[in-house]
């Protein structure tokens, strides 16, 4: 029944679809909480900084991905550059991102479903969506990637309808993005965690490296096309929402449909179309990130960082236990967490920590292995250097403005986010001490 090797079946279009699909939900919700803490102008500043960071990071990441095409992704790069401890830290940071992001997306999915069909409770819709994507991921990798590509294209169609609907000259411009004395522009660092949500998890497509037919070519192409696609979408999404919504700072999980209802009405075909296609976007990210966390868990298990049974594969090539166990944790969070923005913050912090470790690994490998085969080379050292500086800025902003004051409510009990991170770090350290890894095969 069980196998230990992944199968190579994916091409550039699959990598692009998985990368964009993992992130496309970030266009439909999450980022709008940045308007609440920093105002329209502050959010634009934060989004600009984060977009520049991801551009530098993803081009650098493409070099690592083609040099070391392993399912472990960041943990594989960090282990080769920084040793097993570095690999473990990168892997755990990546798991924090990929395990906490799906519940946040599922919660937003429930909110969208309840908005479209009020008779359906949001928490039931959220849990159903999570469980459904979990079952889909138990299929073969190529089938999952094909499904991801279809729903990603549908989600992009939803964004196109949103942009076109906002071009209607009858819709007034309610806000100017010119800073005023009463704006919250100087609070832009507090919006960084939510600006990250526009691109969060795009790097997860790299974790399919062992399933790509020609990783030295298709990985870099797919990643670069994905960052261009998302950069354009992010600029248009922020612009139209900020300038056409009466209250862009409203704390809601469906900002795009909220913007359109003010002119078109709740029951118009435009609003319903964007809402329904937005559901495909949320499902695309939910499905795509599950692909990522399963491969990361699989790789950490294969390298003996985590229990060995997590690296077992079914006859379809799916890492069954690496899907199910994190998935069960995600379902619990989905059913009990009442604030998706807290889950967003945890996912963002894990992500930016992993990004910085990956960029540091690139510098170390350039110095230690200058003649190693690199099918794709980034403009070194300027782009990775700028990426590392911006990445450290993002780490500081997320920690100071989101982790330190933040809390999450589980089973009606508030828990400080810093406490959640401490538990994860201590648990990971104990696991490292108790287990003596002997095989390194990330």
Task: Explain what this protein looks like in three dimensions.
This protein is mainly alpha-helical and 442 residues long. The protein has one domain: Up-down Bundle (Amino acid/polyamine transporter I), CATH 1.20.1740.10. Helix content is 68%, strand content 2%. It contains 13 helices and 2 strands, in the order ααααααααααααββα. It has helices spanning 12-23, 33-67, 74-116, 122-136, 141-166, 188-196, 215-244, 255-264, 269-302, 320-336, 340-368, 382-403, 417-434; strands at residues 407-410, 413-416. The protein has a two-stranded antiparallel sheet with strand order 1-2. The longest helix is centred in the first third of the chain and has 43 residues, at 74-116. The chain is globular, with a radius of gyration of 21 Å. Residues 437-442 have low confidence and may be disordered.
Helix-strand blueprint:
Layout: H1 12-23, H2 33-67, H3 74-116, H4 122-136, H5 141-166, H6 188-196, H7 215-244, H8 255-264, H9 269-302, H10 320-336, H11 340-368, H12 382-403, E1 407-410, E2 413-416, H13 417-434
Antiparallel strand pairs: 1-2
Helix pairs in contact: 1-5, 1-7, 1-9, 2-6, 2-7, 2-11, 2-12, 3-4, 3-9, 3-10, 3-11, 4-9, 4-10, 5-7, 5-9, 6-12, 8-9, 9-10, 11-12
